Amino acid sequence: MSDEQTARSELVAAYRQVAALGLNQLASGNLSVRFQAGMLISPTGASAETLTEAGLVYVDGEGRWAAGARPSSEWQMHTAIYREVPGANAVVHTHSDYCVAVACQNRPLPGFHYLIGLFGGEDVPCVPYSTFGGEELAEAAAAALRHRKACLLANHGMIAQASTLKGAVGLAQRLEIMCRQYVLACQLGEPTLLTQTHWHEFFDRVTQASYRN
């Protein structure tokens, strides 16, 4: 995205959309877009009510930002994803209820439903817990997203990457829905998982139909 004003406007709109969907509340979570050699990211402590276009922080490729600005505490996680996933142009991190619930089990969201495949594989991985805002979490999340569009963060939340803000927000919403449905299914017993044959057929169909989230 080359137009900074457009990038700022779209990022603020997406941030407010995520809040309106109930995926983030208060000052939890953060969003960013790749911009020039770095990224624009929501500032620390931002909420849907307080975020402004001028308040977004530009962090360059070396992890530097202007004096007085304070990017989200998770800026390292966003930076690592842009570095490791060339096709990622937008990142959405949320603390949405059902994603947190599943992430606190510290295990992947398994392939209980064919729409899990929209995240790029047979499950949605869960990276081990490490303290927020640190390099360890950043590297673990980036590694998980090399081969997936989203992952869970143990005892924390979720993060998604896409080529567009709309796509990243859609993935965050989709993952919350899938986690909710998984929790509901588990109340009836252990869900049946799709087989390797099912997954081969699914990905073949996706390729043929050009299905998109």
Question: Summed up, what is this model?
Answer:
The protein has helices at residues 4-20, 75-84, 97-103, 135-144, 165-186, 196-209; strands at 30-35, 38-41, 57-59, 90-94, 126-127, 150-153, 157-162.
Provide structural commentary.
With 213 residues, the protein is α+β, with helices and mostly antiparallel strands. Helix content is 38%, strand content 14%. It has one domain: L-fuculose-1-phosphate Aldolase. It contains six helices and seven strands. The protein has a seven-stranded mixed sheet, with helices on both faces. A hairpin with a 2-residue loop joins strand 1 and strand 2 (38-41). Helix 1 (4-20) packs parallel to helix 5 (165-186), helix 2 (75-84) runs parallel beside helix 4 and helix 3 crosses helix 5. The longest helix is centred in the C-terminal third of the chain and has 22 residues, at 165-186.
Strand order in the sheet with the most strands: 3-2-1-4-7-6-5
Determine the fraction of residues in helical runs and give it as a percent range. 25-40%
Q: Biggest sheet, in brief?
A: 7 strands, mixed
What is the radius of gyration computed over CA atoms, rounded to a whole number of angstroms?
Answer: 17 Å
Q: Strand share of the residues?
A: 5-15%
Shape designation: globular
CATH topology: L-fuculose-1-phosphate Aldolase
Number of domains: 1
* Measured distance between first and last alpha carbons: 21 Å
SSE ordering:
HEEEHEHEHEEHH
Arithmetic mean of pLDDT: 95
CATH class: Alpha Beta
- Could you state the CATH homologous superfamily? Class II aldolase/adducin N-terminal domain
* CATH level-two architecture: 3-Layer(aba) Sandwich
Secondary-structure class = alpha+beta
Number of helices: 6
Poorly predicted runs: none
E-strand count: 7
